Amino acid sequence: MNFEALPAEEFLxxxxxxxxxxxxxxxxxxxxxxxYEVIQRLFRSAHTLKGGAAMVGLTxxxxxxxxxxxxxxxxxSGTLKSSPQIVxxxxxxxxxxxxxxxxxxxxxxxxxxxxxxxxxxxxxxDESFIEEQPTxxxxxxxxxxSIPQSNNYLIHLKFDPVxxxxxxxxxxxxxxxxxxxELKVIAHTSDFxxxxxxxxxxxxxxxxxxxxxxxxxxxxxxxxxxYRGEQSEFLIEAIxxxxxxxxxxxxxxxxxxxxxxxKDEKNEYSEPSQNPELMEADVVELPKTSQTxxxxxxxxxxxxxxxxxxxxxxxxxxxxxxAIQATDDxxxxxxxxxxxxxxxxxxxxxxxxxxxxxxxxxxxxxxxKRVVRDFANRHQKQIKLDIYGAETELDKTxxxxxxxxxxxxxxxxxxxxxxxxxxxxxxxxxPTGTITLQASxxxxxxxxxxxxxxxxxxxxxxxxxxxxLGMVVPDHQPSEQEVLQLIFQPGFTTTKEVTEISGxxxxxxxxxxxxxxxxxxxxxxxxxGKGTALKLKLPLSLAIIEGMLIRVGKxxxxxxxxxxxxxxxxxxxxxxxxxxxxxxxxxxGQYLPLVRLHQRLKIEEAIDKPEEGLLIVVQQGTQxxxxxxxxxEDQLPVVIKSLEEHxxxxxxxxxxxxxxxxxVCFILDVAAILN
Length: 675
Hints:
This protein is α+β, with helices and mostly antiparallel strands. Helix 1 crosses helix 13 (367-378), helix 2 packs antiparallel against helix 3 and helix 10 (297-327) runs antiparallel to helix 11 (329-356).
């Protein structure tokens, strides 16, 4: 029987997910060393990884996963106690398995694969081992003590008829058995019903197998255990000599069926249908059929582009409607109705594709647990990471782009924020510091907050550093919030010594720049001795945004609507000028800086007096600004188009879009304009 190997590309995504599950479970095992559920989850993940790697021909990865699985098997059987040292060893093994996913990542794949085995030998001394616990023979259909140890096996595989609904793949088991040795397979069709009773969701096929292998009985039974279901019938018999013909296989199969019948008479293998109450309970507990499929990201990107083009064409239809109504009122009304109906369908399509692209932020939160653990061990600090709202969804592109900034904020919290256990005790705190990572959706935005209960930021120390670096005017006394904003200035640092984590004066400005490039903002709050919190406000998606079409002189621009808080036409008495602060606009007692867009963008023949134009109030971080524009032309969905290489560095321009008349309109980079 020949099985074709699956493309390795289809396996890589699943393997990375499995390795992340292994890492998460290992960190949980460190907190709950006696949890059998966690150990079982670890074993299943490693076993699935091993089988998948063997199927796609990644032998080194399969062998490494097997060595990894061997340690987990000892934990599962109770012959090995979990300990921090064992968890550390398994984490190293997990990292080596990750390297083996792609041989190009390792200069010597063979040596890397052997390192898993080497690490497995670095276990604690004999005190970590306990006596093997006796097994309950009644829990399995196989009496191991009665079967001679041989390299020749007869196997009976009859899966639960509804196994396909549970995600079980019989062919995967057959492929894994093929890796064990030489197979001879007989497929049985005796359970097939009549055509009228056939149910395509059920499995009627079953198999008898002769396996010639150097594997031990326990290894084969361990593999079968992974696939057992409520109504599955898996039996294995070790024989002294190879069976040569199919009749002997059939006879062995009949013997196995006789064993099953005998057990049925003793109610050891009773069918659920024989007990109505049990059958009803089982039906209630059955998991729902999976309705998910794996789709390449490239297809989603293509679909998103098509939706974007549809949005642009909808804008052109609205433009065409104006021309039709100018010539024929009746036809114009009919066309307008069509355009409005189409617009609703386009918006629904836009919303649906946006939902498809959403992924939980927990995908980037989970790896941070490992970062915190390793940092704490390396720097003799006690730190725990609490995660909330990991299920909050965000566009995949944004999720990937905030991973770097979040990691930088986390490292700053661990390095600058967290004190040593002794310092925390002296300050009357718990020796273990806590970093909280939280995500939530609020009014069309995703709020990501990272907070710690460390020493907090010292405003006086920051102000002194700002004056020393020339970032604060000598005679100016800024507010506490203005002082805290200094940490986002390029080159700012209060650390005099450079460490492997921080102290170079770079990073926080890059974090702010990266967040603003996503049309988001970042806020900071801190209390000396209590801790620091940084809040990121991010849009759900950047593929299609709501935009405000504004006019400045003869030029048209798009201003992202998510940055706008209000619009107004000020009175002359609302305009103020203060020393060292420039022009301000008094809005209900709050003085906001005035920014003339035509000056920043160097546009001539534009309105210069605020009372003659319009002011658009935008928020950047905790600060609000008033942008002076000539007029507001429209509000519309905007498809963001990236600029060519020659135009990417234009100050104040973030991208471009296509309007309904086919013209190109620039999208403003508000953060760059204000800075």
